[in-house]
Amino acid sequence: MRRIYHRFPQQIDLDFELARPFRDVLSCIARLHNTHTTSKGSGGLVKERMIIQVADGRTQFLDLDDLIPLSEKTSEAVDFRVDFQRTLLTPEKRLPVAENVFYLRIVDKGPVTECYAAKESPHGDMDAMDLRTFLKGACE
User: Fold this and answer.
1) How would you label 109-125 residue by residue, b for 16+ Cβ within 10 Å and e otherwise?
2) At the top level of its lineage, which domain of life is listed (predicted)?
3) Residue 110 zone, left/alpha/beta (φ > 0; ψ -120 to 50; rest)
4) CA neighbor of 39 nearest in space, from 30, 29, 48
């Protein structure tokens, strides 16, 4: 079943291919959901978290946990909402630093998977090239 979001941006920021079959890319994206890393920043520890949602019913996004296993419930094309959250961890509190939200459409093209990325808003410090680099590193 195609999982397409009807309000996916008509103007995309980046079109690229991943040299992996569609099912492999779906599995890779599912593994990335709700993962985080912590690194030392100038103001202390910075937690970077990745939340992935998948289109449902053409009008909304569902948490990826609600559709596991994803590869059995999708085919042809899937739209994702990818949210990168960056939080500064201090002993007293947690301070949100940045949030970058992207729409990502992956389309089955046989031995490769075509990807379309668009950023939800101009705010944040990442762009579609950063998303591409991240996905290529994680999936290949």
Assistant:
1) eeeebbbbbbbeeeebe
2) Archaea
3) left
4) 48
**pLDDT, tens only, 54-98:** 888 778 888 877 766 666 667 789 999 999 998 988 888 888 888
Residue-range domain boundaries for the chain: 14-139
pLDDT of the residue at 72: 66
Taking CA atoms, 83 is separated from 61, 68, 92, 120, in Å, by: 12, 19, 25, 10
Question: What's the burial of 14, exposed, middle or buried (CB within 10 Å: 0-12/13-18/19+)?
Answer: middle
Q: List beta partners, residue 41.
A: 44
Tokens of 36: 């985080």
Distance, in Å, from the CA atom of 115 to the CA atom of 109, rounded to the nearest integer, reads: 10
Is residue 96 within 8 A of residue 85, CB to CB? The reply is yes
